[in-house]
Amino acid sequence: MPDETPWLDRDERHAWMSLMAMLMSLPPAVDAQLKRDSGLNFFEYSILSQLSAPPSRRVQMSPLAQLTGGSLSRLSHAASRLEERGLVRRHVVTDEARCTELELTEEGMAFLEAAAPGHVREARRLVFDSLTPDQVRHLRDITQAITAAAAPDVAAVLRDAIVASDDL
């Protein structure tokens, strides 16, 4: 049976190639700035950032792994490193179902507040400074659609995080 895969047209191919180039170049650029300025990698910074969003500064490990794009194992290893630095604390919760929550400590919040300005400057330099407000809205819509197709569970957690961040 012949392969009837619909090949990418010219615009799709160019968009795909551009997306792949961005996915390969943006993470190392962000990582380099964070390591240079705060000694954290992007994954560790993302953990602290996500923990700072809820008023309790506590998040269950499973949704936190989804929000940060890591496995539970990777999150656990990173949490251990952050715990050693006094930036986070683990809590075992046994209410309905046994789970582990990660909490951002006061030291962690102060560390994040010191690291955030440099990270935001880099995000602006790498992404937002070269986009119009309309392009930013399109970028949001496009990345949400791609995330929903690639990882619906992550998209659902992201939607909740976006709603929660709007309340800040």
From TrEMBL:
This is MarR family transcriptional regulator. SUPFAM superfamilies: Winged helix' DNA-binding domain (SSF46785). GO terms for biological process: response to stress. GO terms for molecular function: DNA-binding transcription factor activity. Residues 16-148 form the HTH marR-type domain. PROSITE patterns: HTH_MARR_2. Gene3D superfamilies: Winged helix-like DNA-binding domain superfamily/Winged helix DNA-binding domain. PANTHER family: MARR FAMILY REGULATORY PROTEIN (PTHR33164:SF99), TRANSCRIPTIONAL REGULATOR, MARR FAMILY (PTHR33164). It comes from Actinotalea fermentans.
